[in-house]
Amino acid sequence: MDLLQLLIITMGLAGQVLIARKHAGGYVFWIVGNIALMFMYHGLGQFGLIALQVANTAIQLFAITRWIKDQKTHADQACAGSATAGAIDPSFTPA
Q: Which pLDDT band, with edges at 50, 70 and 90, does 88 fall under?
């Protein structure tokens, strides 16, 4: 097993565990893994699979952006006027 495969496996599993624990940081691991997969697929000439990883990455970027936006709205409503309003809570679960 080479270093790239180890990176892909580690990123995928770490992302899966974090998402299962409702932690938005899991998307970051998935995105890093997707980018590593794109390099691997390029070396294999698998351009259709590169397109799939581009789509997956776009969806994950949308999801993490939405998660953070929803969390900020939730925090603003819960802590109106507080110094912690809008603070990022990575364990927040969007509705």
A: low
User: pLDDT band at 9, cuts 50/70/90?
Assistant: very high
Domain count within the chain: 1
Report if residue 90 sits inside a domain: no
Give the count of beta carbons closer than 10 Å to the beta carbon of residue 9.
Answer: 13
**Owning domain of residue 20:** 3-78
Q: What is the pTM assigned to this prediction?
A: 0.71
DSSP characters over 23-90: -TTHHHHHHHHHHHHHHHHHHHT-HHHHHHHHHHHHHHHHHHHHHHHHHHHHHHHHTTTSTTTT---T
